[in-house]
Design goal:
Elements (H helix, E strand, L loop, with lengths): L1 H5 L4 E4 L11 E4 L9 E4 L5 E4 L9 H12 L2
Parallel strand pairs: 1-2
Antiparallel strand pairs: 3-4
């Protein structure tokens, strides 16, 4: 898939997007789930554990994509 994406102009949004192997035309790095944003982790016995952000940092990918959508008027 990386080889196919390398042949076309693309945009990557997400944690470590700028380190993508296919070299996107635009890369927007976002926070990592469980580190920069809240979430849920599951133990091996399927018990959910709530996670809170442990480090302040970049915005969540969903927040970033919604902001771009709003700016584009979609």
């Amino acid at each position: 898939m990386a080889a196919a994406l390398a042949q076309m102009r693309s945009v990557a949004i997400g944690p470590r997007a700028s380190a993508a192997s296919f070299q996107p035309a635009v890369a927007v790095d976002t926070g990592a789930a469980g580190i920069h944003e809240a979430g849920t982790a599951f133990r091996m016995d399927d018990v959910p554990l709530p996670l809170r952000p442990s480090v302040d940092g970049a915005r969540a990918a969903l927040v970033t994509v919604r902001a771009l959508r709003d700016q584009m008027g979609a």
